[in-house]
C-alpha cells in the first residue's frame, strides 16, 4: 500500500538515474542522449531540489499542525555559497547520486564545480546568517530566514596589473535551480507620501497615504538539516512593479514613460551594497532595508493570524532576531502595523514589541554604527519617523527618571542624534526595543559593556549577553574536506560528530598515534596538492606542496593587518637575500597566500592589494630566492574558494589589532581542518586558546587591555629596526609605485600607527620564525598540534551557538518532523 508519508521519490541508483535523465529532457530541454557537464549539473540539482521540496512541505505541514513558537531570522545578507553538495549530503544521498552519475558517465564532484556561488552578502555577518540557517535546520528548530534577493550579489574582484577592479555579479544569468518563485506570496510595500489624521471610533488614528508602492514577491530557498527530515525556508524578497503603481501617468497617456518608471521599482532589490560605512545614509539602502522588513513583517503577521485571533499570544508564538541593526526598521514597522492597521493601543503594541525582538551586533567601533538622517527617513518613511520619535520621547522620560537631568548622558543615549545632520541612531533604537542584545564573543561583550554601549549597560545590564560565534561543520568539514572527514569518523568509530561536534575531543586520545599521524599527513598532503593545482590554474604560478602554506584570506581591512603580513614577507625576503648559502639550506620554504576583497571605495585597502602584487612580482621573479619564498594573491575570494583553500593550508593568520575583531570566524574553519593558527589574542581567538591551549598555536602581539596605552606610546616612539627597514623598502620604491604607496607608509609612520603594526612586529616575526618555522621542521610535533586543533574545535560549531540562542534568547524548542 502506498502511503503519502513515504514521499513520492525513490533514492535507489536506478530511480535517481531516471530522475536525472527526465530533468535533462523535460526541465533543461536537452536530449537525454547528449548533454554536457553544465546541463547535467542543472538536471542533477533539479533532482535534488525535488527531494528538498518534499521534505520542506512535510516540515511546514508539521510546524503548522504543532504550532510551536517560531523564530524569524531577519538579515540583509546571506552568504550561502554553493548548494548542490551541501544539499545532497544533508539529505544523506550524495553517494547514491555519485553512483547513479558514474553509470551515466559523469562525476558528482565535477558537476558540483559547475555551480556558481550565491554571494548575497559581504563577509562574516553574512556567513553567520548562512551557518545559522544550517544549524537551525539540523537542530529541528521551527525557524524561517528572511532577506533580500539581490539580482547582483557581491561584486566580482578582477585584478589587472595588480589593481583591484570590480565587476557585477549577475549570478542569476544561468538560472537558479535552488529557488522557487511564489507569485501568490506577494505584499505591497509603501514609500514616501504623507501621514494624515482621521477620526476613528471617537478618537484619532493615523493613515499613511503613500507616494509609491512596490510589490515584494517571495522566492523560497529550502534549507535541509543534516540527519533529519526537517527542511526550513529562507524566504528572499524581490521587488516588482505594483499594479497600484503610477496610475496617473497612464491616465495622462504617457504610456512609454509609465512603463519605464514601473521598471524602476525593481532597482530596490537590484544590488547588494559592499560593506563600506561611507555608504551610510543612502536612500536606496534605506529603501532596501524597509522593503525586506515590511514584506517579512506582513508575512509573519499573516501566518500568525492564519491560526490565532488574539495578539496577546503573539510573543508566545513569534521571536524576531535582527542580524545587526540593518533590519531594525522592523521595530517601528511592527508598531505601525499593530497600532495603525490592527488597531491595538500604543501600550499593547509596545508591550508586544518589547517581548519579541532580540538582536546581535557584529560591530566593535562606535563609528561603525548605523545612522539615518532624519530628513531622509521622514521623506521615505514619514509614519516610521513619527513612531521612532514617540518611542524616543518615552525613552528619554525613563532616562530622566533613572539618571536625573544628566544632559550629556541623555544626548548620548537618545535615539535621535542632534547635530549638523540630525540622525536616527539605529543601534540605540535596537537596544531600547530589544529584550536582548548579543555580542559575538566574550571579549566583544566586554567591549560593548565598557565602551560602545557603556551608558546602556549601566541602565539595563540584564539586556547584554554574548554567544560566541560558531561555523557549521557540515559545510566547513563534511562538504569541503571529505578526506579528513572520513578519517575522523574512522578513528572515532562514528560519524555522530557531524551533529555533535564535542565528540571530536575523542581525537585527543590518538594525537600521537603513529598510524593516525601518517594518515592525517596523507590526507592533508592531498589537500595541499589540490590547492597547488588551483593556484596554478588561477595565477599560472607553480608552487611546491612540500613548502609550508601560510594563508590569510578575509576581507581586506586596515585593522585585519594584511599589511603586517606583507611587511613580514618583505623582511623574510630581505633576510633570505642576505643569507650565506649554508644558511639558506636551513630555511623552511614557504608559500604565502593572501586573498580578499576591498570595498570599492576603501582606498587604503585597495593599496594593500596592489602592494601584495608588487611585492609578489619582485619576490616570485627573484632567482636568488627560488622556491624558498613565494607570494600568491588569490583573486575573487569567496565561499567556494575558501572551501578549497582552507583544507590545504598549514598555517593561517588572524592577526587583527587586539580589540578590533568582534569575533572572527575564519579561524574556526581553519581550526576544524587541522590548520595551525598564527594569531593575536582578539575576538573568539581568546576562547580558542582556552580550548586548544597556547602550545598548540602561535600567539603573539599586544593584548586587548594593553592597546590604549601602546597607542599613546606609538605616537612618541620610533619603530623597531627590522620594521623600519621593511617599510623603507616600500617607501624607496624597491617594489616600484613609490608615489602610490606613500599614503600607506604615512598611515603607519606619520599617522601614529593606529593599528600598532610597529609595536607587534617583533613578536610577529618571533611567532613566525622561532615558533612556526621550528615546529614545521618537526613534522611529528606539527601533526600532533594539527590533530589537537581539530580535536579542540567542537565548541566552535554553530550548533552550539544556535542552541544557546534558542535556549537563552529566543525561547524556542525543537520540532522534529517524523521521517
Ligand atoms: C554598512 C553600511 C552600508 C552597507 C553595508 C554595511 C555593512 C555590511 C556588512 C556593514 C557591516 C557588515 O558586516 C560586518 C561584519 O561582517 N562583521 C563581522 O561579523 C562577524 C560575524 O559575527 C565577526 O566574526 C567579525 O569579527 C565581524 O567583523
Automatic annotation (TrEMBL):
Q: Which GO terms describe its biological process?
A: glycogen catabolic process
Give the first-level EC class, as a single word: transferase
Q: Where are the transmembrane segments?
A: none
**Which source organism does the UniProt entry give?**
Phoenix dactylifera
Q: Please give one Gene Ontology molecular function term for this protein.
A: glycogen phosphorylase activity
Write down the chemical reaction(s) this protein catalyses.
[(1->4)-alpha-D-glucosyl](n) + phosphate = [(1->4)-alpha-D-glucosyl](n-1) + alpha-D-glucose 1-phosphate
Listed cofactors? pyridoxal 5'-phosphate
Outline what the protein does: Allosteric enzyme that catalyzes the rate-limiting step in glycogen catabolism, the phosphorolytic cleavage of glycogen to produce glucose-1-phosphate, and plays a central role in maintaining cellular and organismal glucose homeostasis.
Instruction: Kindly state one GO CC term assigned in the UniProt record.
Output: cytoplasm
Name the UniProt key words of this record, in alphabetical order. Allosteric enzyme, Carbohydrate metabolism, Glycosyltransferase, Pyridoxal phosphate, Transferase
What is the protein named? Alpha-1,4 glucan phosphorylase
| Family stated for the protein in its record | Belongs to the glycogen phosphorylase family.
List the EC numbers from the record.
2.4.1.1
Amino acid at each position: 500500500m502506498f502511503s503519502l508519508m513515504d514521499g513520492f521519490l525513490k533514492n535507489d541508483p536506478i530511480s535517481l538515474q531516471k530522475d536525472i535523465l527526465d530533468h535533462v529532457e523535460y526541465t533543461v530541454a536537452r536530449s537525454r542522449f547528449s548533454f554536457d557537464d553544465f546541463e547535467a549539473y542543472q538536471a542533477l540539482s533539479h533532482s535534488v531540489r525535488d527531494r528538498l521540496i518534499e521534505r520542506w512541505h512535510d516540515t511546514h505541514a508539521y510546524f503548522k499542525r504543532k504550532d510551536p513558537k517560531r523564530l524569524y531570522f531577519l538579515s540583509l545578507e546571506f552568504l550561502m555559497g554553493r548548494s548542490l553538495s551541501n544539499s545532497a549530503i544533508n539529505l544523506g544521498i550524495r553517494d547514491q547520486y555519485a553512483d547513479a552519475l558514474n553509470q551515466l558517465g559523469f562525476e558528482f564532484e565535477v558537476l558540483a564545480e559547475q555551480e556558481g556561488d550565491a554571494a548575497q552578502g559581504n563577509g562574516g555577518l553574512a556567513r553567520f546568517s548562512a551557518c545559522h540557517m544550517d544549524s537551525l535546520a539540523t537542530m529541528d528548530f521551527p525557524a524561517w530566514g528572511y532577506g533580500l534577493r539581490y539580482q547582483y550579489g557581491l561584486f566580482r574582484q578582477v585584478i589587472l596589473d595588480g589593481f583591484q577592479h570590480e565587476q557585477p555579479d549577475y549570478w542569476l544569468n544561468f538560472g537558479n535551480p535552488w529557488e522557487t518563485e511564489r507569485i501568490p506570496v506577494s505584499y505591497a510595500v509603501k514609500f514616501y507620501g504623507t501621514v494624515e489624521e482621521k477620526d476613528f471610533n471617537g478618537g484619532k488614528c493615523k493613515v499613511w497615504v503613500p507616494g509609491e508602492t512596490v510589490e515584494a514577491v517571495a522566492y523560497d530557498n529550502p534549507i535541509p538539516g543534516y540527519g533529519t527530515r526537517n527542511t526550513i525556508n529562507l524566504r528572499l524578497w524581490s521587488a516588482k512593479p505594483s499594479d497600484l503603481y503610477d496610475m496617473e501617468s497612464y491616465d495622462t497617456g504617457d504610456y512609454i514613460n509609465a512603463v519605464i518608471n514601473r521598471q524602476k521599482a525593481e532597482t530596490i532589490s537590484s544590488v547588494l551594497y559592499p560593506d563600506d560605512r561611507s555608504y551610510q545614509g543612502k536612500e536606496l539602502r534605506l529603501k532596501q532595508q524597509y522593503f525586506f522588513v515590511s514584506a517579512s513583517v506582513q508575512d509573519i503577521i499573516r501566518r500568525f493570524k492564519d491560526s490565532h485571533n488574539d495578539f496577546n499570544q503573539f510573543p508566545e508564538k513569534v521571536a524576531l532576531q535582527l542580524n545587526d541593526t540593518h533590519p531594525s526598521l522592523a521595530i517601528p514597522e511592527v508598531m505601525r502595523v499593530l497600532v495603525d492597521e490592527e488597531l491595538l493601543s500604543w501600550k499593547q503594541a509596545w508591550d508586544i514589541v518589547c517581548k519579541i525582538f532580540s538582536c546581535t551586533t557584529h560591530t566593535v567601533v562606535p563609528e561603525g554604527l548605523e545612522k539615518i538622517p532624519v530628513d531622509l527617513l521622514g521623506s521615505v518613511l514619514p509614519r516610521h519617523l513619527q513612531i521612532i520619535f514617540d518611542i524616543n520621547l518615552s525613552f528619554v522620560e525613563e532616562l530622566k527618571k533613572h539618571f536625573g537631568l544628566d544632559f550629556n548622558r541623555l544626548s548620548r543615549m537618545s535615539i535621535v542624534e542632534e547635530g549638523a545632520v540630525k540622525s536616527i541612531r539605529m543601534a540605540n533604537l535596537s537596544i531600547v526595543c530589544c529584550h536582548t542584545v548579543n555580542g559575538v564573543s566574550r571579549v566583544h561583550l566586554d567591549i560593548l559593556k565598557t565602551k560602545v554601549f557603556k551608558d546602556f549597560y549601566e541602565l539595563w545590564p540584564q539586556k547584554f549577553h554574548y554567544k560566541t560565534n560558531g561555523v557549521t561543520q557540515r559545510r566547513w568539514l563534511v562538504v569541503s574536506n571529505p578526506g579528513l572527514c572520513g578519517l575522523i569518523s574512522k578513528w572515532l568509530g562514528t560519524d555522530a560528530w557531524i551533529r555533535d561536534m564535542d565528540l571530536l575531543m575523542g581525537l585527543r586520545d590518538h594525537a600521537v598515534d603513529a598510524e593516525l599521524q601518517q594518515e592525517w599527513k596523507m590526507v592533508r598532503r592531498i589537500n595541499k596538492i589540490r590547492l597547488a593545482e588551483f593556484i596554478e590554474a588561477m595565477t599560472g604560478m607553480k608552487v611546491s606542496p612540500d613548502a609550508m602554506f601560510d594563508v590569510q584570506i578575509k576581507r581586506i581591512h586596515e585593522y585585519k593587518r594584511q599589511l603586517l603580513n606583507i611587511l613580514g614577507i618583505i623582511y623574510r625576503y630581505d633576510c633570505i637575500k642576505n643569507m650565506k648559502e649554508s644558511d639558506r639550506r636551513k630555511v623552511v620554504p614557504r608559500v604565502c597566500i593572501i586573498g580578499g576583497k576591498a570595498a570599492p571605495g576603501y582606498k587604503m585597502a585597495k593599496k594593500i592589494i596592489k602592494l601584495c602584487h608588487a611585492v609578489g612580482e619582485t619576490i616570485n621573479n627573484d632567482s636568488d630566492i627560488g622556491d624558498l619564498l613565494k607570494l600568491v594573491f588569490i583573486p575573487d575570494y569567496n565561499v567556494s574558494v575558501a572551501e578549497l583553500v582552507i583544507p590545504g593550508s598549514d598555517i593561517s593568520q588572524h592577526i587583527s589589532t587586539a580589540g578590533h575583531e568582534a569575533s572572527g570566524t575564519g579561524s574556526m574553519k581553519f581550526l576544524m581542518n587541522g590548520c595551525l593558527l598564527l594569531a593575536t589574542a582578539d575576538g573568539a581567538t581568546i576562547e580558542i586558546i582556552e580550548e586548544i591551549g597556547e602550545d598548540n598555536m602561535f600567539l603573539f602581539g599586544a593584548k586587548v587591555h594593553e592597546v590604549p596605552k601602546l597607542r599613546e606610546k606609538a605616537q612618541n616612539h620610533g619603530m623597531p629596526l627590522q620594521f623600519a627597514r621593511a617599510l623603507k623598502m616600500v617607501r624607496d620604491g624597491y617594489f616600484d609605485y613609490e608615489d602610490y604607496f606613500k599614503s600607506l607608509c604615512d598611515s603607519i609612520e606619520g599617522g601614529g600607527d593606529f593599528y600598532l603594526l610597529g609595536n607587534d612586529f617583533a613578536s610577529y616575526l618571533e611567532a613566525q620564525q622561532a615558533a612556526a618555522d621550528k615546529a614545521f621542521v618537526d613534522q611529528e610535533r606539527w601533526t600532533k598540534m594539527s590533530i589537537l586543533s581539530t580535536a579542540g574545535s567542537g565548541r566552535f560549531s554553530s550548533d552550539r551557538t544556535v542552541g544557546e540562542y534558542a535556549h537563552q534568547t529566543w525561547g524556542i524548542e525543537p520540532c522534529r518532523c517524523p521521517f
